[in-house]
Specification:
This protein is α/β, with parallel strands linked by helices. It is built from seven helices and ten strands. The longest helix has 18 residues, at 175-192. The protein is globular and about 50 Å long. 36% of the residues are buried. Bound molecules: adenosine-5'-diphosphate (2 copies). It comes from Bombilactobacillus folatiphilus. InterPro entries: AAA+_ATPase, ABC_transporter-like_ATP-bd, ABC_transporter-like_CS, ABC_transpr_LolD-like, MacB-like_ATP-bd, P-loop_NTPase. This is ABC transporter ATP-binding protein.
Length: 222
């Protein structure tokens, strides 16, 4: 099934005449692993922000699981959709330094009414999955870069999202660590059928994807 369908997407920023993004049509299927590659300023962040329901100021149609999500403008509804379908992984991990691994992953639930005990069991299970079984009570600064990225992947997995959006997940890691992180991403793709949309500058990293889309001047080349 199609998980993402875009048509006639056009985005311009204020005081710009050229399109930052111009996508006549794009379909991503459930379970696909897609790499996005392009030079700085080519529109990768713009693209990711639209896919991630973070930017709604654009023209065109965006269907997420057959649902017309461009019509939705309420922040609460968008946030609920993000929690339901999407997990985010960033280049610089975006972990909070004064919180333990466990609390970093639990953070989105601190204000929820779910009992912490069941949530904690789930977090420990996910930490085991990403290879951080005994690190729950450490702080991010006590971990290596690769371990910090595993924490952020665990955080992305907490709601069991259908789609993982990864913005340069290996951009801050050395080559050997990058490949280990990509092995984990590939495992999530193959064993849990996650749809992965990943921006990368690295050809080696892009090789893990089923499909690479190049982006230049806001246009996609498949
Ligand atoms: P953005 O996503 O906003 O374009 P990035 O953090 O991806 O910003 O990139 C910042 C700068 O660093 C850009 O000039 C980009 O081309 C460069 N850059 C980022 N990651 C890499 C990388 N792995 N190899 C080479 N250049 C990179
Ligand atoms: P990338 O992530 O590939 O570096 P971006 O999506 O950040 O590319 O940028 C695409 C184009 O949109 C570039 O020309 C950039 O200068 C422009 N742009 C991005 N963000 C803004 C903004 N907030 N205001 C104006 N122009 C922007």
């Amino acid at each position: 099934a199609d998980v993402i369908q875009l048509s006639q997407i056009q985005k311009t920023y204020d005081r710009q005449s050229a399109y930052a993004l111009n996508i006549p049509s794009l379909t991503i299927q459930d379970g696909e692993f897609v790499a996005i590659m392009g030079p700085s300023g080519s529109g990768k962040s713009t693209f990711i922000n639209i896919l991630g329901l973070l930017d709604t100021a654009y023209q065109g149609q965006y269907q997420l699981n057959q649902k017309d999500v461009h019509q939705i403008k309420s922040d609460r509804k968008l946030s609920r959709l993000r929690n339901q379908y999407l997990g985010f992984v960033f280049q610089n991990f975006k972990l909070l330094r004064n919180y333990t691994v466990l609390d970093n992953i639990n953070l989105p639930h601190i204000y929820s009414k779910k009992p912490f005990a069941s949530q904690k069991a789930r977090i420990l299970q996910i930490l085991d999955q990403v290879g951080l079984k005994d690190q729950a009570h450490k702080y991010p600064t006590q971990l290596s870069g690769g371990q910090q990225q595993r924490v952020s992947i665990a955080r992305a997995l907490i709601n069991d999202p259908q789609i993982i959006i990864a913005d340069e997940p290996t951009g801050a890691l050395d080559s050997a660590t990058s490949l280990k992180i990509m092995d984990l991403m590939q495992q999530l793709h193959q064993e849990q059928h996650k749809t992965i949309i990943m921006v990368t500058h690295s050809e080696l990293v892009a090789e893990y994807a089923d499909r690479t889309i190049k982006i230049k001047d806001g246009r996609l080349y498949q």
